[in-house]
């Protein structure tokens, strides 16, 4: 669902490199339509378009695609040039290999490598050259390369495992959107594991489609999280946008061909619950409607299943740090 929202953690993390470079980030936040109050609320969320705009502004302001986290800058246009260098490769394996070689030409760049492990392939990113306390750039590179590879072959590459060299971070609940697969922490390296059969697939993109792709990438790759095959994402798709017609857990379990206790157990294993999923979807739909439609706030509250507008106001302020009216005002 395109209404997925972005946790305020990622806004704070994205700004860390720019702040380290002495950049005044307040004007950038204003231009992206993000209220400073959002940064002070740990549970606050923003729309994906706001996050994509912030990333683009940071890249422009710093002239650095590494957002201030590298020892040396990666000048704007480097990612686009890499894409042009790989777009005529015959297979995904050739393309990823050439892309890794491309970045290997730059001193102090994070090392990207692709290795086969029997029937599997592992994409590894070595961030030892980075100052990246929140692992923001490292996580971004993993997401970008996974999404880029999927785009090149015209199908989503199913991840089998994501490994991280660091302990489980406080924001790991967001990983369901970024790395929808089993995850392992305090591993020997930071990497993504997928089936090697994808490497032999031909590239389905060309210079024409690349031009369109680069108009919004890589910011759009990061700003539109993809929950993929996880159970929570399947449930979000089944629930849809009409809160009034949301099925009970028992009916949903039947649709998923499992018993209610099994559904509850699987959700617990993914760190969630049915009620939490409904609350998150309600939150994301509220942000979506306030930013994109002319619906009166009272109508939005009713559509989201709130019996009183005041209850919606309280819930929305808890989610974003702002009232619905203040949030809509910043969007206009």
UniProtKB/TrEMBL annotation:
The keyword DNA-binding applies. Residues 229-330 form the HTH araC/xylS-type domain. The keyword DNA-binding applies. Keywords: DNA-binding, Transcription, Transcription regulation. GO terms for molecular function: DNA-binding transcription factor activity; transcription cis-regulatory region binding. SMART domains: HTH_ARAC (SM00342). GO terms for cellular component: cytosol. This is Transcriptional regulator, AraC family. It comes from Pseudomonas borbori.
């Amino acid at each position: 669902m395109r209404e997925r929202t972005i946790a305020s953690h990622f806004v704070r993390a994205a700004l860390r490199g720019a702040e380290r470079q002495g950049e005044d980030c307040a004007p950038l936040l204003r231009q992206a339509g993000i209220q400073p109050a959002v940064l002070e609320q740990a549970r606050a969320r923003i729309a994906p378009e706001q996050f994509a705009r912030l990333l683009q502004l940071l890249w422009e302001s710093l002239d650095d695609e590494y957002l201030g986290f590298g020892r040396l800058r990666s000048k704007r246009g480097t990612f686009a040039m890499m894409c042009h260098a790989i777009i005529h490769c015959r297979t995904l394996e050739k393309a990823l290999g050439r892309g890794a070689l491309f970045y290997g030409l730059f001193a102090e760049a994070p090392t990207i490598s692709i290795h086969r492990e029997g029937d599997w392939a592992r994409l590894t990113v070595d961030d030892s050259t980075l100052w990246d306390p929140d692992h923001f750039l490292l996580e971004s590179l993993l997401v970008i390369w996974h999404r880029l590879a999927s785009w090149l072959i015209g199908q989503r590459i199913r991840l089998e495992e994501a490994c991280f060299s660091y302990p489980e971070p406080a924001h790991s609940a967001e990983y369901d959107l970024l790395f929808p697969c089993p995850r392992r922490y305090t591993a020997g390296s930071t990497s993504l594991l997928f089936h090697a059969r994808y490497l032999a697939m031909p590239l389905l993109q060309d210079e024409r489609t690349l031009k369109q792709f680069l108009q919004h990438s890589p910011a759009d790759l990061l700003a539109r999280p993809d929950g993929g095959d996880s159970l929570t994402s399947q449930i979000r798709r089944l629930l849809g946008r009409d809160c009034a017609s949301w099925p009970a857990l028992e009916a949903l379990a039947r649709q998923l061909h499992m018993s209610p206790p099994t559904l509850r157990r699987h959700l617990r294993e993914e760190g969630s619950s049915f009620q939490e999923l409904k609350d998150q979807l309600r939150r994301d739909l509220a942000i979506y409607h306030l930013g994109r439609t002319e619906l009166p706030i009272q109508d939005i509250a009713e559509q989201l299943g709130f019996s009183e507008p005041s209850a919606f106001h309280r819930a929305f302020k808890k989610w974003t740090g702002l009232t619905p009216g203040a949030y809509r005002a910043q969007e206009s």
